[in-house]
Amino acid sequence: RPATVLPAMAKASSLKEDLVSGLDMLIVRELTGGVYFGKPRGIETLADGSRKAVDTQVYSEAEIERVCRLAFELAGKRSGKLHSVEKANVMETGVLWRAIATEVGKDFPNIDLHHMYADNCAMQLVRQPKQFDVIVTDNLFGDILSDCAAMLTGSLGMLPSASLGAEDPTTGRRHALYEPVHGSAPDIAGRGIANPIAELLSFAMLLRYSFDMGEDADLVEKAIDNVLSSGLRTADIMQEGKAKVSTGVMTDSILKELDKLVSG
Description:
Blueprint: E1 2-4, H1 17-20, E2 24-29, E3 42-45, E4 51-54, H2 61-76, E5 81-86, H3 92-105, E6 112-117, H4 118-127, E7 134-137, H5 139-152, E8 160-167, E9 174-180, H6 197-209, H7 214-229, E10 232-233, E11 243-244, H8 247-263
Parallel strand pairs: 2-7, 5-6, 5-7, 10-11
Antiparallel strand pairs: 1-2, 3-4, 8-9
């Protein structure tokens, strides 16, 4: 999940403008392991009639290495800085996570690796978010931290995401799913008030990460930035002095701006 604050949207964040203006970070969250899938899990009734719940945090070396290696690769395509986030001070999975991240880092000597506890990371996201470039973390902490980072941008309607599978050793490609962070929002379907920008930014991510079409992704992102700079806003990102438009008008405006950039 990227969290990017476009210049036109810096004032939409709940944080001070100088803290978020120019923010461009990426959170890499492990999606198929950890406490959400660990066993044993469940709720049982004890002999005295009280209930006990159990969730199990489990990670294998291979699971950690897979997501950390991807994060290092992505950091190499950005500023070369990676924060690995866990709770090695109180969790055994955190101890293993830190060890594996350090070992994988030996294969990426040009990447500046930092280790950080998850609670400190949450604090730093709202204290000084621009210190981060790429964050890699487990399923639980990634769930929490990515939502925290999302609101730095001012609206979930602005945020794309990608779920990237393991790389095929033969083709070098990955299975991937690209979607807005906010999901389908069926409660507002057909009302023309949804923000289409997260969907379009998800398409830009597809171009960048699945097809290595970085220049084309830049054009999509630039078109969105230009339209926002012109003052158009959907309801969820409306600001004083701006023009509120429907989903269709925002989409058409971005497509027209993209045509101008391509033909120009």
